[in-house]
Amino acid sequence: MLPCYVVLDLETTGANPVSDRVTEIAAVRIEGGREVARWSTLVNPAISIPPFIQNLTGIHNAMVADAPRFEQAATRLLEVLEGAVLVAHTVRFDHGFLKNEFERLQIDLRVKTLCTVRLSRKLYPQYRGHGLDAIMQRHGLYTAERHRAMGDVDMVLAWLRQATQEFGAETLQARASELLGSASSVPSQLETPIKSIPDTPGVYLFFGEGPLPLYVGKSVKMRSRVMSHFQADHSVGREMRIAQEIRTVQWRETAGELGALLLESRLVKEMQPVYNRQLRRLNSLCAWRLSADPRARPLLTLVSTDELDSRDLDSLFGPYRSKRQALDALRNLAAERALCPQALGLESGKGRCFAQQIGQCQGVCCGLETPERHHLRLQVALAAQRLQAWPFPGKVGIREYDARTDRTDIHVFEHWCHLATVHDEAELEQALQTHSPLAFDLDSYRVLVKRLLAPGAAMRGLIRL
Known about the structure:
The protein is an alpha+beta fold.
């Protein structure tokens, strides 16, 4: 198949290459079509093997108790791999574990890889299943050592011999060489050709077997960003899980980064992908409203975004994801700035508050500080958290244009709320005539503040409507 390659299989304590460990290694080295070395060993993972894995592989804790640690087996493994292509069924799994194990030894493993799942797809495109069990059933192969490292290596070798007999050595070598020259880090089960994904701004969606996406992401270069997920999966547990589950990729192009940010935020909230975390929460936000009366008690009232009018944001401070987060932030601010917990509504009662008794309040609660001065200090303390007033008299549009695709997007906003994204004057006119409730979204607000108000922010593409 190739001048020199090593067929390898690992058994492990689980599927996460960052936190799980290797329990067994098997490798057979082939040079010039002949087997020249065969080696296998159990490995003490230094962590307990979960019951499920014990039942699957038959490798239990007592079996590996006296086995060598990975660092003791590493030298022999490097000798077997020297100058060879690493071949494995779902090679990214085995390669990911080896990369992490060697990194713990401060060794940078550099080896070319070939996935026999992808090779099976090239040779037998008429079949859907290309896992080892499916291949064994299809080709009449059997082993009593399934899910043991050498047993699985022997099954891969037996299948390669059958494929060589069926297609010929030259065809097999040609298909293998094509895979070596392509994006070897792409998951073997991915049905979407990577080359079909445009390297333009937009949002990409990873799908597994189900109807809802596993992950939604955005980039100004979608194809490059998608590839980066697969190239980092050996060191990031989430990326490895995505790579194991992904089946297809869909995408939606935009004219620029702003459009991609807005679309990503909306799709994540609508579709709730399992591997998105930061943007998944809906508008369950709250903010502090400061009373204009220095003598009001409490000075601050917590309001939810359901009660917010986006036209009055400059009287609010925050926002916060939860009531608990808001209270914690206010307690910290009171302690840092010697503000009165009683006046802020953090402590009940009258007279001297507890903080004043221990010297951490300047005494507005007992007449030692005027309400006006305390109110002013509170405003100064909260200044960094003040929500920005909408800086325009009405609606605005932000135009983005991508010369590569000749695409124009105009994003329409009012009072920090994203009203629509349109592509021509007719759609723009319709958006301006549509009157819908303004829905405040924290993520859109932050994107716009950075775009419009941050020091040095670019105002290009701004249209007053």
